[in-house]
Design brief:
alpha+beta, 4-stranded antiparallel sheet, two-stranded antiparallel sheet, 8 helices, about 35% helix
Length: about 210
């Protein structure tokens, strides 16, 4: 007869062996165990020793729920929204990304909440008008965060980038966005004046009530 090895006091995965329980139908020894989740269960000794059983079943349940959550959360892996989100993160945090110097390299960040695809999709991604629209920061010096992002076509984004042109006035060089903050003039007002041929000084110092010369 095969000698039974005393397993009481041993631990296998989440299972702490308490005492001998008896024998299973096929004659192998079974043991009373307490799982880390608090459940008392009877387990075949050989199954614990070979790693087949490591919990009362809670571990398998957790893995299954995690898998289901991933399928639900990332079922949009092939969706354009997920690609937009992934690229947004990469531009700001992956130093090897070709666009990193223009984003993360100059301090642009993704807000903490939007590091979760679920949150990003719920707060912003689900409103995407079409596959032709990509995420655009309203303030090119600002972060990816609620209130500073919109969906825009390539043409709209190109127009927004015009606010990132450096203007020099009174010995100071700033972007249109920065000058807008400093002068109180809207970005649209400053950009419109520049397109009309105004000098940087005129565009930045003339009160907004004055009409653009023809």
């Amino acid at each position: 007869m095969t000698q039974i090895v005393d397993m009481a006091g041993l631990r296998f995965g989440r299972l702490a062996v308490i005492s001998r329980a008896g024998r299973a139908t096929r004659g192998v020894a079974t043991w009373n165990c307490r799982c880390d989740c608090g459940v008392l269960t009877v387990v075949i000794g050989a199954d614990m020793r070979n790693g087949h059983t490591q919990s009362c079943g809670c571990l398998q349940d957790e893995k299954r729920r995690s898998s289901e959550t991933k399928r639900t959360t990332h079922g949009r892996t092939n969706d354009g929204i997920y690609t937009v989100w992934r690229n947004m993160i990469s531009r700001c945090e992956n130093e090897k990304h070709k666009s990193y110097p223009r984003y993360g390299g100059r301090g642009i960040q993704v807000c903490k909440a939007w590091h979760s695809f679920d949150v990003f999709y719920r707060e912003f991604g689900s409103s995407r008008p079409s596959s032709k629209h990509t995420i655009d920061r309203i303030d090119n010096d600002g972060n990816y965060e609620p209130g500073n992002c919109r969906w825009a076509t390539q043409g709209e984004q190109q127009n927004n980038r015009s606010t990132n042109v450096m203007l020099t006035h009174d010995g100071e060089s700033l972007t249109v966005t920065q000058w807008s903050r400093k002068t109180g003039l809207s970005q649209q007002c400053i950009s419109h004046r520049l397109k009309k041929g105004w000098s940087a000084s005129e565009a930045l110092t003339t009160p907004s009530s004055r009409k653009t010369p023809r």
